[in-house]
Amino acid sequence: MGPLLVALAAALILASCMTPRRGYIGDTGVWERRIAAGKLPVDSLLRSTSTLRAEWVAEARLWGAHFPAGTAGVFTPRAINGIFANLQRQIHGDSLLQAAVRVEKDPRAVASLLESAGHYDRLYRPNPRLRRMINRGNQAYGIPRGILDKTHRYLLSPRVRKPVAASLPADLPGQASYSELFHYTFWRRGDRANEAGYDLVNWFSALFGNSVGTLNPEIRRPREQQLLKTYLQPLDIILVKSPTHITDKFIPGFFGHAAIYTGNPEELRAMGVWELPEVARHQARITAGGAFAEALRSGVRLSTPVEFADGDYFLVLRITGLTEAEKQVALARTFRYLHQKYDFNFDIQSPDRLYCTELIFLAFEMIRWKSHHLWDRETISPDEIVETALDGQRLLPVVLIGPQSEEISPSQERIRGLLEE
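Predicted structure:
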């Protein structure tokens, strides 16, 4: 009984550690220095944050309506990208407020942070699938893991809430008490068990995939590299069949991998995206030949033709009717997701990690991708990318490169024949 009481007491102490200065935002050193130097007046910061919050909340409600509340239904890529982009703006505003608390100890900033935390509770926490997706974080948009847990603890912390209680809205969610903190620390509405299962499946799948993947032979294919260079344009989707890879045997369907051709420096300059922040940080890698965005077991990376062209069959698909603005947004989004960890859960509804077709799903949100439900996950196979094209979803087959030949504009019958092999 003694160790249990010690554990309970430790959990209670941990749960009550939330303070106004600690908050739910991590490092805010840049903003703290600007505030301390008088370059970012707190009064102005509070006014602008209050104005912008109304816009963020309205947009969050708009996106939230696109997320099915039950276990059925698919989160669309447009809704996933939209919710995380909006969250990124909200957290940026909260970072400014947290810096004001740390430098000026301004109680108005504490009250404003509590209002933000209340909005997170109202907008995201009621939907379990949405809440769990957000709590897993998203490196591409700077969303830390457990953000909704932290904001909820901030709401429940008496050390944060009671000193500014008089200036808070009457309808602020939650009740500030140590007993509520204690209960939340242990129960957390079933999320602890859900995440433990999610992480366990990811771990076992990673162990298996990495063990088998080390046995894959590496074959250089100069012919295929040259042919791809001949036919590809930025934002083309490439499906790959690598029968020499042992991992290919465990992937259902004909194709086993997919990637996005992002382009060389000249192509990216011509498209007007070379200086975009998402692209600019990768200029050295692009200049060195990195032109294929692909999710591998090591994570999402930009591969060179030599690294990428390891297969017997390559099917190139091109999305038709894209405006220049849509191309720029899709490229920026693709580069944003570089360096994300690999998703061994193969779950397109949770972009904390990505696998190969999930990257395509999120990058091209204008397409209604085919998918299927498997083991409580929504997933897309490489063959389903092809099936989406065959169903007329704005995807044009450009070329099929085989071991001995290449077919320009391959017919639907030819492609379906491969999928049925």
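Summary: The chain has 19 helices and eleven strands.
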